Amino acid sequence: MKKFDFKNIRFGKVDVNDLNDRTLLLNLYITQLLTLIIGIIIIFFQSNHNFISMFTIQGGWKIPIWGTLFAIAVLGIDMLISRWVPKEVSDDGGINEMIFGRRPIWHIALISFIVAICEEVLFRGAIQHAWGPYWTSILFAAIHIRYLQHWLMTGMVFSISYGLGWIYLQTGSLWTPIIAHFIIDFVMGCILRYGKEEEEQST
Question: 120, 128 in Cβ contact below 8 A?
Fold first, then answer.
C-alpha cells in the first residue's frame, strides 16, 4: 500500500488575484456551510439551549426595528470612517470587492443572507451562549484576519460583533442580529458593486 507523503503538503498565503470567481464562490459557500454545521453541533450539546427557541418572533416589531436601527448606525459610522480615514486602513486585500464587485443585486442579497444566517447561528447562537458577547466578539474579530493589520478596523469588527450580541440579548431573538448583519453586508455589497461601476463610467 502506497503511503501518503505529508511532507509534500505546502501552506502559504493565497493571493486573491490567483483565485477565479468560481473558486472564490465555492470557497465562500463551503465555509458558510461548515460555519452553520459547527454552530448547530455546538448548540445541540449545550444544556438549556434550544435551536428553535432562538428564532422566536415574540418580540414582534421590536426585532426588525432593533436590527435595522443598529445596521443604520454601523453603516453611518462606516461612511464617516471611509470619508476621513485613508483607504489603505480599511483595505481587506480585495476580498470583498471580488465577492461583490460584479455580482447582480439578487446574488448580493443571497450571499448577504447566507452569511448572516450562518455566522449568527455560530457566533450569537452558539458561542455567545457559552462565552458571552465580549469573548465572542474577540473571537469574531480574530477570525476576520484580513483586518488584523489595522487596529481601527479590528476595533470596528469587534464593536459590530459586540453590538450584534447586545441587540440579541435585548430582543431574545436571533432574527435581530441576522437582520442587522444582512442589511450591513447587503448595503456594503451594493456600494462596492455600483460604486465601482460609477467610478468606471466617470473615468
Answer: no
pLDDT digit string, tens, across residues 74-103: 999 998 888 887 766 666 667 788 888 889
Angle, helices 62-84 vs 151-171, to 10°: value is 170
Contact 180, 74 (CB under 8 A): yes
Any idea of the CA torsion for 75, 77, 78, 80, to the nearest 10 degrees?
130
Contacts of 76 (CB under 8 A, 6+ apart): none
Q: What is the model's pTM?
A: 0.84
Q: How many CB atoms lie within 10 A of CB 85?
A: 13
Predicted pLDDT at 44? 92
Nearest CA among 32, 72, 56, 68 for reference residue 179: 68
For cell 503511503, name the residue.
Answer: 3
Separation between Cα atoms, residue 199 and residue 203, nearest integer Å: 6
